[in-house]
Design brief:
It is a single chain. Helix 1 packs across helix 6. This protein has a 7-stranded parallel β-sheet with strand order 3-2-1-4-5-6-8, with helices on both faces. A two-stranded parallel ribbon has the order 7-9. The chain folds into 2 domains: about 140 residues, NAD(P)-binding Rossmann-like Domain (Rossmann fold), CATH 3.40.50; about 110 residues, UDP-galactose 4-epimerase, domain 1, CATH 3.90.25. The longest helix has 16 residues. About 45% of the residues lie in helices and about 15% in strands. About 40% of the residues are buried. The chain is globular. It has about 290 residues and is α/β, with parallel strands linked by helices.
C-alpha cells in the first residue's frame, strides 16, 4: 500500500533535500512537493515520481488539493512575520484531511525557557501540533551550513571576507542534507512518534575556524570580520530586511556569541546509521559557491 508524503516549503534549503532524498527511494512512497510558486518548483519536476502542488495560504482550494489523500507531512514554514499563523493553517488542513503524522522542522532550543524569539515561535507551532491530536515528530537542528552558501558566498568570492556579529562563539553547524536524511528515516519508518530530536553536526566551530576551513579548501585566504551589533543592525536595515527580522537575527547571534550554540548531539548517526557531514566536506561539495 502506497504512502503519500507532502513536503511544504519544498523549494527551501531543507525541503528541497527532503524531496530529492525521498524521490530516490524505491517502494510505495509518493512524493508531493508543496511550493509557493509553480515556477520556483520547476526544477523539482525533473525528479522521478515527484508531484508539484501550489500552496497558497489565502486560497482554500489550493490547500484542499495539496492535502487530499496525504498520509504524512514534512512541515516547513517560511521565516516570515506571520509564520505561526501560516503553520496553524497548514495543521488545521492536515487535521481535516486525516493526516496521520507530521514531522515538523523546528529549531534547536525551541523548548528553552524563556528562550529567544525564533525558538518561541517554533515552540508555539509545536504546541499547536500536539494539541491537534496528530502524531508528530519535531526536528530541532542547529544552524545550517548552507547559510554560508546562501548569505555569505558573494562577499567571500568578491572580497575574501564575511561579516557576522558572533565573536568567538562556537556553533555545531549541520548540513541540510543530514537534516533531510533524518526526516526521510522518520517519514518512512516507525517508532519516532511523540519525540523531539536535537540535530547537530560533528563539531562546533567559531566563525574564525569556519574562515580557516574555507581558506584551506579554497586555497585562498578568507577572513571573518566580527561586526559590532549596531553596525550589523544598520547594515541589515540598509538591505531592507524588516526590523522584526533584524531583531530576531541579532538575538540569535547574541546567543551564539555567549557560547550557547556549541552543544553536539549524535542523533543524526543514531537515526540514519551514518555520521553527519563535516563543515570541510560541505565546503568541498559546494566549492563552486565560494570561488
Amino acid at each position: 500500500m502506497h504512502s503519500t508524503i507532502l513536503i511544504t516549503g519544498a523549494t527551501g534549503t531543507v525541503g528541497r533535500e527532503v524531496v530529492i532524498q525521498l524521490s530516490m527511494l524505491e517502494g510505495d512512497v509518493r512524493v508531493r512537493a508543496g511550493v509557493h510558486s509553480l515556477i520556483k518548483g520547476e526544477n523539482l519536476k525533473r525528479l522521478p515520481g515527484v508531484e508539484i502542488v501550489e500552496i497558497d495560504f489565502e486560497d482554500q482550494a489550493s490547500l484542499h488539493a495539496a492535502f487530499t489523500h496525504v498520509d504524512k507531512v514534512f512541515l516547513i514554514t517560511p521565516f516570515a512575520e506571520d509564520e505561526v499563523e501560516m503553520a496553524k493553517t497548514l495543521i488545521d488542513e492536515a487535521k481535516k484531511k486525516g493526516v496521520k503524522h507530521i514531522v515538523k522542522l523546528s529549531a534547536m532550543g525551541a523548548d528553552a525557557t524563556p528562550g529567544i524569539t525564533l525558538g518561541r515561535r517554533h515552540h508555539e507551532i509545536e504546541q499547536y501540533i500536539e494539541d491537534s491530536g496528530i502524531a508528530y515528530t519535531f526536528l530541532r537542528p542547529s544552524s545550517f551550513m548552507q547559510n554560508y552558501q546562501n548569505y555569505d558566498a558573494e562577499s567571500i568570492k568578491r572580497e575574501g571576507q564575511f561579516y557576522q556579529s558572533t565573536g568567538n562563539g562556537k556553533v555545531a553547524y549541520i548540513d541540510a542534507r543530514d537534516i533531510a536524511a533524518v526526516g526521510v528515516e522518520i517519514l518512512t519508518g516507525t517508532g519516532h512518534e511523540g519525540k523531539a530530536y536535537d540535530l547537530t553536526g560533528l563539531e562546533a566551530l567559531s566563525n574564525y575556524e569556519v574562515a580557516q576551513v574555507l581558506s584551506e579548501v579554497r586555497r585562498k585566504q578568507v577572513t571573518f570580520v566580527d561586526v559590532p551589533e549596531e553596525a550589523a543592525r544598520q547594515a541589515m536595515l540598509a538591505q531592507q530586511i524588516p526590523e522584526w527580522m533584524v531583531d530576531a537575527l541579532l538575538e540569535l547571534n547574541r546567543l551564539y556569541k555567549a557560547g550557547y550554540g556549541g552543544n553536539i548531539t549524535d542523533t543524526v548517526q543514531q537515526i540514519t546509521g551514518r555520521v553527519p557531514h563535516t563543515f570541510r566536506e560541505f565546503v568541498q561539495d559546494h566549492l563552486d559557491s565560494f570561488v
